[in-house]
């Protein structure tokens, strides 16, 4: 019996991998089951040191140049077989765009249930999971009764926690168990991986998001928000109106038909705060709204609001934050 | 070629949702039901294949009898026929069982290509299409923002965080649709009239000869709740520079997010 964590990587381990490890550690502690993790990628190398402090016993590392990018055909049988070998009772993955496909496929092959996009996870005589449904308007608390109980965690909702005293118990650094890439036939061929340049933070993983909506007025005005993004190290988001108007690509859209973000700080500029938008940013930490319409619904769902012209406010805010940060 | 599209009838998420007295379900009175928006995009992609490659498009769904209304919309968009899994025992199904039932239904059609939305906007379970593909043992790609058919294979741009993978899959395959894949059409009035006469076949779970263990659920919804909205809703006042100074102070000192 064991808990198995799927470590997400895109060349480097993702923060979501450490979040999943944190959640796994919690379950392992509550149940007394050992905690294991699986890494599938090009090379774990020095990144193994990041996996210290979670109480992970073993990291099963499937390293191969062909495993650098996610492949359904290659990754899914690895986890299916490893879960059986380790008698995994709980499997925790990540609810990223790829992670959801990965988890769904593994769950299907194991013939078990899966709760995707969990925002909270606990153990009470079994795995209990909270997940948003109906565009985040309702939270469902679900008990997973079968085993292995499988969940994928929404990125950015579980703060990474390591235990300082683990090293003292000799459990600090997990044992790395190297595994060969299994012989599978790849049906799907990866023709090209078009990835963002290094250092570009994706919306779903960003700690701070600055978003613009109708009030931006046109594509020529994004530099105003980009200036604030640069000062904050934030990712740039947009409302559906801005995307549907052709001002920015869909990959920037926050909302029900875009991305769901959960940053520590969300700054909505010139966004009215329609239900569709709220669905994408409801789980944010602190919400700031800047809008010239004092009646805009965004002011009902923000922590701090400024009624005013974003073209005046945003540069001033960038300047003010720049001073504090320097 | 034969193309199947998985569509789901869902409450319009613009609705106001109330938790029922049992704390485990939502009040369904007065809810307006629609086709899940990502399924409309899946449907549109299938119809484009009908137009370009003379594909036959079958609309497949699972749900109560009322689901036919949503299926008629899909038929009015351009689908040729429908297959609905309906009848007793559907309420208890989770994604695991739903995928089994849909896979069994799809097996009777042997489609060359299956489209689905990347998720349904009611339960956001985000797994039924992938499960169906795994059960049918066909390759699949999720969250496609571009699709192209070339002979016996398809090429898709599959969205990932900060970019995409361009993938080539041999047929038969299953693809789930991202919003940016296309702009779904509105059915025209003549097509809405025509859709009324298109056939929708119904099958029950027992018709599909599924074993009870295939349909068993290992998930228990213990409670539903409305998310807490404890926002401060503090609208700042004063000159712009004063407001900025206050905001920076709040963000830095109280919220500690700078």
What would your notes on this structure say?
The complex is a heterodimer of chains A (326) and B (258). Chain A has 2 domains: 178 residues, Rossmann fold, CATH 3.40.50; 123 residues, Rossmann fold (3-Layer(aba) Sandwich), CATH 3.40.50. Chain A is 26% helix and 29% strand. Chain A has 326 residues and is an alpha/beta fold. The longest helix of chain B has 17 residues. The interface between A and B is large, with 97 and 78 residues.
Compose a concise summary of this entry.
Chain A is α/β, with parallel strands linked by helices.
Question: What are the salient characteristics of this protein?
Answer:
A: alpha/beta; Rossmann fold; five-stranded parallel β-sheet; 7 helices; 18 strands; B: alpha/beta; two-stranded antiparallel ribbon
Low-confidence stretches of chain B: none
Q: How many strands, what sense, and barrel or not for the largest sheet of chain B?
A: 9 strands, mixed
Distance between the termini of chain A: 50 Å
So, CATH architecture of the largest domain in chain B? 3-Layer(aba) Sandwich
The average pLDDT of chain B is: 95
Strand sequence of the main sheet of chain A, in spatial order? 7-11-6-1-4-5-12
Shape of chain A: elongated
Discrete helix count of chain B: 7
Alpha-beta classification of chain A: alpha/beta
CATH class of the largest domain in chain B: Alpha Beta
Helix fraction of chain A? Answer: 25-40%
Structural Rg of chain A: 21 Å
Taken in chain order, the helices and strands of chain A follow as EEEHEEHEHEEEEEEEEHEHEHEEH
């Amino acid at each position: 019996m064991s808990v198995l964590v799927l470590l997400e990587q895109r060349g480097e381990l993702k923060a979501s991998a450490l979040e999943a490890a944190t959640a796994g550690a919690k379950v392992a502690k509550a149940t007394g089951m050992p905690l294991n993790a699986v890494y599938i990628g090009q090379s774990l190398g020095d990144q193994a040191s990041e996996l210290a402090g979670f109480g992970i016993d073993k990291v099963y590392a499937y390293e191969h140049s062909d495993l650098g990018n996610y492949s359904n055909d290659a990754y899914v049988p690895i986890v299916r077989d490893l879960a059986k070998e380790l008698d995994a009772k709980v499997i925790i993955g990540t609810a990223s765009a790829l992670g959801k496909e990965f988890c769904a496929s593994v769950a299907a092959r194991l013939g078990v249930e899966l709760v995707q996009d969990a925002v909270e996870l606990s153990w009470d005589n079994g795995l209990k999971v909270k997940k948003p449904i109906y565009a985040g308007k309702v939270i469902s608390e679900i008990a997973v009764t079968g085993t292995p109980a499988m969940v994928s965690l929404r990125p950015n909702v579980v703060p990474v926690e390591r235990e300082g005293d683990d090293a003292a118990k000799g459990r600090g650094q997990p044992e790395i168990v190297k595994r060969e890439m299994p012989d599978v036939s790849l049906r799907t061929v990866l023709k090209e991986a078009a990835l963002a340049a290094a250092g570009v933070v994706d919306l779903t993983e960003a700690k701070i998001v600055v978003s613009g909506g109708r009030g931006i007025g046109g594509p020529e005005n994004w530099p105003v928000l980009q200036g604030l993004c640069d000062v904050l190290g934030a990712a740039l988001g947009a409302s559906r109106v801005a995307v549907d108007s052709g001002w920015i690509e869909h990959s920037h859209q926050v909302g029900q038909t875009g991305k769901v973000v959960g940053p520590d700080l969300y700054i909505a500029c010139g966004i009215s705060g329609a239900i569709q938008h709220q669905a994408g940013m409801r789980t944010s930490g602190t919400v700031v709204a800047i809008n010239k319409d004092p009646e805009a619904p965004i002011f009902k769902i923000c922590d701090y609001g400024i009624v005013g012209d974003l073209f005046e406010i945003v540069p001033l805010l960038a300047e003010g934050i720049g001073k504090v940060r320097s | 070629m034969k193309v199947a599209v998985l569509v789901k009838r869902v409450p319009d998420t613009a609705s106001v949702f109330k938790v029922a007295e049992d704390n485990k379900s939502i009040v369904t009175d007065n809810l307006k039901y629609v086709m899940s928006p990502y399924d409309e995009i899946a449907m549109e992609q299938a119809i484009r294949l009908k137009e370009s490659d003379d594909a036959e498009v079958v609309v497949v769904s699972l749900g109560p009898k009322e689901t036919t209304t949503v299926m008629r919309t899909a038929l009015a968009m351009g689908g040729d026929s429908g297959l609905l899994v309906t009848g007793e025992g559907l309420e208890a199904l989770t994604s695991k069982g739903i995928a089994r039932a849909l896979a069994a239904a799809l097996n009777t059609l042997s489609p060359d290509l299956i489209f689905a939305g990347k998720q349904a906007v009611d339960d956001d379970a985000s797994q039924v299409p992938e499960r169906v593909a795994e059960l049918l043992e066909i390759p699949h790609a999720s969250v496609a923002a571009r699709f192209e058919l070339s002979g016996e294979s398809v090429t898709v741009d599959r969205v990932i965080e900060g970019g995409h993978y361009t993938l080539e899959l041999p047929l038969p395959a299953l693809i789930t649709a991202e919003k940016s894949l296309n702009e779904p059409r509105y059915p025209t009035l003549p097509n809405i009239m025509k859709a009324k006469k298109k056939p929708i076949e119904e099958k029950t779970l027992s018709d599909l000869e599924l074993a009870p263990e295939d349909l068993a659920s290992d998930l228990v919804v213990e409670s539903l709740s409305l998310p807490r909205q404890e926002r401060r809703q503090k609208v700042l006042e004063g000159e712009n520079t004063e407001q900025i100074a206050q905001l920076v102070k709040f963000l830095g000192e109280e919220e500690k997010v700078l």
